Amino acid sequence: MSESTQTKYEPGQHPSLPPPFKTRGVALWLKENLFSTPTNVVLSLLAIYFLYKVVPGVLEWSLFDAAFTGNDRNECRAQAGGACWAFIGERLQLFTYGFYPEAERWRVNLSFVLLVVCSVGLLWENCPGRKWIIALSVVFPFAAAFLLVGGNGVKLFVALACVAVALALMFRGSSTTFVIVIGAVCAFLAKFIFFGGITLPFTDIHVGGIIDLDDYTFLNLPEVSTDLFGGFMLTLIIGVTGIVFSLPLGILLALGRQSNLPIVKYACVVFIEFIRGVPLITLLFVASTMLSYFLPPGTTFNLLIRVLIMVTLFASAYMAEVVRGGLQAVHKGQTEAADALGLKYWPSMRLIVLPQALKISIPAIVNTFIGLYKDSTLVIVIGLLDPLGIGRASLADTKWNGLTNEVYLFVAIFFFISCYAMARYSLYLENKLHTGHKR
Amino acid sequence: MSTPALAHSPSQPSLISRLWYDKENRSIIVQILAAMALLWLFGSMVLNAIHNLEALGKGFSFNFLKQPASYDINQTLIEYSSRSTHFRAMLVGIINTLLVAVAGIFLATILGFILGVLRLSKNWLVNKLAYCYIEFVRNVPLLLHILLIHGVVVHSLPRPKQAINVGDAAFFTNRGVFMPSPEFLPLFKFVAAAFIIGVVFTWGFRRYAKALQERTGKQLPVFWVSLIAIIGLPVVVFLATGQPVNWDIPVLSGFNYKGGMVVRPEFLALWLALSLYTAAFIAEIVRAGILAVNHGQTEASMALGLPRNRTLNLVVIPQALRVIVPPLSSQYLNLTKNSSLAIAIGYMDVTATIGGISLNQTGREMECMLIVMAIYLSFSLLISAGMNYYNNRIALVER
Asked: For residues A23, A29, A30 and A33, what is the CA-based torsion angle, rounded to 10 degrees?
């Protein structure tokens, strides 16, 4: 029946046939994806009705009928009936830096730039000069703390030197016991020589403090009280500190929980279950009201540091459970093989077990990070001014009375962008590391 | 058992290295060190606490629980007045926490399952809408949700005078939602009895139906029979005994409604925020659970000729539940713990009563925080125990 078409064309000269009937086009897509069955028709119509009811209103309020300039609420009202973004514009500095002194804000900006550089270097594998950036990110927490708080630069360098010695030993592949001993000795010596000496236990005898670092000044930045920290800067400080310290601590706790040594194991179990059993708010209350009871009389330290410690401990308990899940998923044969090769406990963990376990638990680890980042908003209950706290404080201003929706939406968008970015990156990693079969 | 080669080893290692490089000995040494470090840590913490409390002249006692609390609580399910004790205030707080947690778990589970299924829908629009909802809610802090919903409830609902009237029975105002409260007449106990009989009958019937199905393969209409027994029977008795319930309908008097029962805006905001937030997480868990069921299972069940709803009920859901339940229970735990954020909007839960106002009034931080932590820990343990029991019931039965 197709003889006539076969004879009409030279070989290879046949024009492309049109696509089979109804395999593409808007109508078909609509039919397949929206109106395939009666249930789907009803669902689609409901969804369309919902969108019709919600989207125009939201767009009008937030964009088309919104005021972007004005000095107070009444000026906004006079211009438009929707949102008053001028309020956010006026308070943007406050939202970003809290009450950080204006003249010193370059330090915050510099830390932020360093943070961005480090994150890009760590997250993007083909980044040029990645090796240097990784080295930088080891130094980064100390440098950022120094930049933000200020004070005498010499102390920073001494502390860095101690860390550098410990790290150098670790990468040389010395035995773990040796590294721990050397680390402890380093810390002890540093405290003895540089940081005011030590009081001998059970006595009042004070020794050491040979070199008073305050005699030497280098890069002396004016100190900024942490009470002035606030806004997005505070969120980032809490988030980054928590992320950087909770992962290693969580790994240690998870290994402890898997340990054969009963005392170590049950100590870890009790710690993890206790922290996971109570809300973060109660731990923050403990940090703000009663932590000083548990410390030697006269010891005081900064509220921000107490909060950072609590947030890190809280996140590390969750991290421990996540890592434990990964450890359990690693086949026992792997550990046995490592034993058979003569690897000791720490090398076998570092080289064989943990890389596999961490790879499995990446999505859950990132989820814990996101949770930690979001939980940083809870610090407002003990009086630190994160963006939400700044927003609530700004709302008390009579000039801008009653603009709650604008403030909450603005803060929500900030959190959404950062958390969603983290979630997407975790998805990308998951796909990249997924070496099994996919359906 | 020492072989000659070992006996003639050139240098006998020292005692310390023999102890340290022997696995058994080393583990004992490490544990002794760890125990000493822990003891030192806890000992010094306790000693410091005793010392510091003495210095402040505070001591450590729970006697303050018997003193009058002298503050008001806006939502009390048990009798409470400002003359009641701190202990009573704590009980009120515990009940309020439990109320919002249970209500939240209930709503979050329903919403979460619906969203999770919608997220798997083949309908592009519905799927994407569910995706947007889940991603937005999951990536914004819960505290923000609570404050936002509280703001919406308080600012956008009308004052009592202009209340939104639903059938002259329920009134939506910014002071809360006022609803009629039932007052049970003596005959109502027959209705209650009918309900209990219905539940017991359903339980027995389900067992019988399951046994019958396993023996003969015959399936009984369990769902309809249960529905009739649990709902139909009490309704019939209710009508037969002449509707033995009086409704106390709220009436506007002065600036507010009197009578009936009220759902406070704080409760409403906290409940909705907790449920909507947790539902987004549950939706992802449900989705992952359903996707985790191997496609071959569905295909096999189709090949056996099972219709779609039976495939879902008998093959997919039982297997998906095994994946869903463990993370679901941790979401329930999170919801319960997150209810402590009530303090931000003034809902009087256990953190706000004993851990908030009582703490500030009596200055007994240590005792109050210990009580609050103990309460949350026991909630967590209870929920874990319950979910573990359920998980064991649905777990794969292996030889």
From this structure: 120
